[in-house]
Write a structure and sequence with these properties.
Blueprint lengths: L20 H13 L5 H14 L3 H15 L29
Helix pairs in contact: 2-3
Length: 99
């Protein structure tokens, strides 16, 4: 009788998306210490406090880190192939001259 998993078969272990005990403990600790305030909000508040205190470069870095959590990262995309342009419509108005 063959032993082991078949190619592509997965046996045992945690299911995908379920955090391990350490990650779960860390999340619970963060929620308890921050009263459930999300990380981007905490970073933004901390950055603004730093900027108001005169630590502008440090505050800007913290606010930049908060933006990574709040906004998606865009990828550069290269276009290939032929670009078709729409036909141009030219309108000419003939106005009578005022004499």
């Amino acid at each position: 009788m063959p032993r082991g998993a078949k190619p592509g078969e997965r046996r045992g272990g945690r299911e995908k998306g379920i955090p391990n005990k350490e990650t779960l403990t860390l999340r619970e600790l963060m929620e308890r210490e921050t009263n459930g305030v999300p990380l981007p909000v905490l970073l933004l508040r901390t950055g603004l406090i730093a900027i108001d205190s005169g630590m502008i470069s440090e505050g800007a870095k913290i606010v930049n880190d908060a933006a990574k959590y709040a906004y998606p990262t865009l990828k550069q995309v290269e276009l290939s192939g032929e670009v078709k342009t729409a036909p141009v419509l030219q309108i000419v108005l003939n106005r009578p001259k005022n004499d």
